[in-house]
Write a structure and sequence with these properties.
Order of helices and strands: EEEEEEHEEEHH
Strand content: 35-45%
Shape: globular
């Protein structure tokens, strides 16, 4: 093939996408899925266990509620991606991330790595990234169970949360 390389849409971090030329070292005979991570962040406010959700400020899913996370870059591991996205979207620097589960979806060609993160900082010490994260809320697990049926909860995150609830109830 001569001339310019074909272009593809690539994540630029923070949920934004740009069109870029494909690099010869990353061209493959067969299509590859995207890889994304998210963090299910738990905290305790002195009275009850809480789970953190963020309101997305950018497309895709602008205005919808989700777990902090995003797309992995070519030079990082899934855990590094989860740590970066958590820090970018909330200001939280995770001491420890525990792998929760992996979900592969054929309908959007994406593999999701979910991590569990225990948060021990002040409840209101979340530092949102302007533009990318529009808001946040702490919910009890029961509140999150109810939220899982809300159409404003990102669909793939709803599936992961429901799978986690089912997994937890089996034990």
């Amino acid at each position: 093939m001569q001339g310019r390389l074909p272009t593809v849409d690539l994540p630029t971090g923070g949920g934004a996408w740009k069109q870029a030329e494909t690099m010869a070292e990353y061209t493959y005979k067969y299509p590859r899925p995207a890889v994304a991570t998210d963090c299910v962040v738990f905290g305790f406010d002195g009275r009850s266990l809480k789970v953190l959700l963020i309101e997305r400020g950018l497309e895709p899913y602008k205005g919808m509620w989700a777990f902090p996370g995003g797309f992995m870059t070519m030079d990082e591991t899934a855990e590094q991606c989860a740590r970066r996205e958590l820090r970018e979207e909330t200001g939280i620097i995770a001491d420890q991330l525990t792998p929760l589960f992996v979900l592969a979806r054929a309908d959007n060609h994406c593999i999701y790595y979910s991590y569990l993160c225990r948060y021990s900082g002040p409840k209101y010490a979340i530092a949102l990234q302007p533009g990318e994260t529009a808001g946040y809320r702490w919910l009890t697990p029961d509140g999150l169970r109810e939220m899982a049926d809300d159409p404003q909860f990102v669909g793939s995150h709803r599936q992961r949360w429901q799978a986690f609830i089912q997994h937890a109830e089996e034990y």
